[in-house]
């Protein structure tokens, strides 16, 4: 008991101390001090194609332009001395445009300018459908620049250097781009010339996707132009020669860095990872027993002709197996396709065309989903596309064509990495980023997951090629991280949840 009394004075002092320290603890974190580091963001200019412009849902429209990744970067840069960021806005949120009052803007050599897609619901289920209405953007109404966002949808690397690419007169012959026509500084202007004339203090460059993408989305129907140094001889859906790409990119960077500008450059994603190639299965055909029997009978002569030529060693046993066409009752029948890499047998028999059934290694393009099952001849109910009538080359990217895409992409990305080092630029590995989006997705602050799944994943828009606004926000953060690492900057992040994963109207 005496020990207890002896402790009381100390207990009193303890209680007094507790009363004196009863002030609530402030757990508010110290404010982040943002800094530009060694970079100067006062005059930021973005150069590239549709990915830079903010293209989404198969169109360029005002809300998409506002949600472009360069506009997000500019908002972050504004916290550390960044200036205004001017955008050549479309006139509305429809995305469609006219040329001289004509709504058919799909001129030879030019990107199609139709309305954006929305997810419409019909008896057969939800499907991407152009939004109704006529766009109020008139291509011939020249905008007054200069503009900080120099993203030109549809442009290839070498086209950014082409004089007259913004020429109205050039549209009719496929030598100009309608989007650049709207805001080019003159009939002989180049995209890079107009960008460099602004004397940027900082730039972003993301170009080259269309040098490989247009070949891929066209089902490999174009030509691999490797070894051809003359891009004026290329078709729109041809693969660009890697040396032409390298020379073009070097010339672009020379122009942008001529006055000492810093910048950031991104490599190109594997185009076969995007929903445009991962959504339509190779075997979507359901058949009843009677139809399967009818089809097998119809292909019987073709199969027998193949077997005969295999016995004569004209084709291998493996190719015979690859080309033999059979159907079964039920779900999961593979479509029939044209494959130009098969042995040409038409010299032996004109009916033995280069066709086979698709396998899991073939990539059907997204637009094939609305073509398979239609009739090649409306008067013939048996002329079913993809079943009785093989799908043409443009609907399928075969393994051989995928190899050409991979080879071109590897060469382009090697050039981008090397030039990023040579010009001492920040580098964004967009290829790895979008591969991760496909493989695992990205967990957001609210616990939701953004993936590359078509229409539902939140990362891509309804064209299956371009990111959604939320996808662009994820890309913007990758650009910001690369800039911070290179220039010692501390910049505000972009919150992807502030941007939609899918426009609903």
UniProtKB/TrEMBL annotation:
Q: Which InterPro entries match?
A: SGNH_hydro_sf
Q: Which residues form the signal peptide?
A: 1-19
Coiled-coil segments, which residues? Answer: none
What keywords sit in the KW lines? Answer: Signal
The organism's superkingdom is given as: Bacteria
- What this protein is called in its record is G-D-S-L family lipolytic protein
Q: Which organism is it from?
A: Flagellimonas iocasae
